[in-house]
Each structure stands twice: as structure tokens, then as C-alpha cells.
Specification:
- The protein has 1 helix and 11 strands; from the N terminus they run αβββββββββββ.
- The protein is mainly beta.
- The protein has a single domain, classed as AOC barrel-like, CATH 2.40.350.
- The strands form 2 sheets. Strands 1, 2, 3, 8, 9 and 10 form a 6-stranded antiparallel sheet that branches. It has a 5-stranded antiparallel sheet with strand order 4-5-6-7-11, with no helix packed on it.
- A hairpin with a 6-residue loop joins strand 1 and strand 2.
- It is globular and about 45 Å long.
Length: 149
């Protein structure tokens, strides 16, 4: 009798392990953004915000460059391709380059990363020049945690 109850307990545990939900996420390393910078070109309308960075995806061993020229009148759904077109960046809102909300996604994948660039490591200054009137640069590597939709 003792043997059969042990076997039943083992089968119950094994069945629970096998029945784990299919949507369990594996641990994903965050996207790493380097050479992150932005410039404000506001002397003529529409004003443009140019954002550039290098993207490293350690999960897929991919390095690519991303660049965008965002106008104040553009929709937040507009996506810019990175040099590796499997990666795209868009800005849910981008009015002031001192506080940038961005979304990096992998095309045809449920993986995406949302972030907000601001704070002490995001250093901005007025240039005193006509073009660009303001420049910002991130000091170090900015990490964007990846989620699956």
C-alpha cells in the first residue's frame, strides 16, 4: 500500500510539472542601448527630434543601429526601422528630448521593450547654435527590460 501511495504522489507531481502553462516566459536579458543621443532641430516648423542609438539584443546575439527623425505632428504608432530591419523603434510621445518615451520591438515577435529616457545620466544642454538648438546624450548603457505581449 505504501508503494502505491508513493507512486500516486510522484505521478501527481509529474502531472503538475507537465501541465505548466505554455505562456511561461523564459528569462530574457534586456536590450542594451549605447551611444544614445538626441538633437532638437526647432528653428523651422515642423520641429524635428533626431534620436540615435546602438542596440544590442543579447538574447539573439544581434547588434544594430537605430535612428529616427521625429516630427511633433507624427503619430505615436509610426515605427522607424533599425539598420537590422527585424528591429523597430517608435515613440508613444516625443515632445521634449529631455524626457523621451520609446518602444523597441522585434518585428513578427511578441517581444518588445518600453522605456523612458531621462534623469541624471541623460545630460542635455542648449548649444547656442541654430542647428541643433539642444543636444542630449546618455552616459553609459541604458537597459530596456523585454516583455512578451
Amino acid at each position: 500500500m505504501k508503494t502505491s501511495s508513493t507512486a500516486i504522489t510522484f505521478l501527481a507531481i509529474a502531472g503538475t510539472t507537465i501541465a505548466a502553462p505554455a505562456n511561461v516566459e523564459r528569462d530574457l536579458k534586456p536590450f542594451q542601448l549605447t551611444e544614445l543621443n538626441a538633437g532638437l532641430y526647432d528653428q523651422a516648423l515642423p520641429a524635428y527630434r533626431i534620436v540615435n542609438f546602438k542596440l544590442n539584443d543579447p538574447n539573439n546575439n544581434i547588434d544594430t543601429s537605430c535612428s529616427s527623425a521625429w516630427s511633433g505632428g507624427m503619430s505615436g504608432a509610426y515605427k522607424f526601422n533599425c539598420s537590422n530591419t527585424d528591429y523597430q523603434v517608435n515613440f508613444p510621445s516625443l515632445t521634449d528630448i529631455e524626457d523621451i518615451k520609446l518602444n523597441v520591438s522585434i518585428v513578427n515577435s511578441k517581444a518588445f521593450a518600453l522605456g523612458e529616457i531621462n534623469g541624471d545620466k541623460w545630460k542635455c544642454h542648449n548649444t547656442g547654435a541654430e542647428y541643433p538648438s539642444k543636444l542630449c546624450k546618455y552616459d553609459g548603457t541604458y537597459e530596456l527590460p523585454i516583455v512578451l505581449a
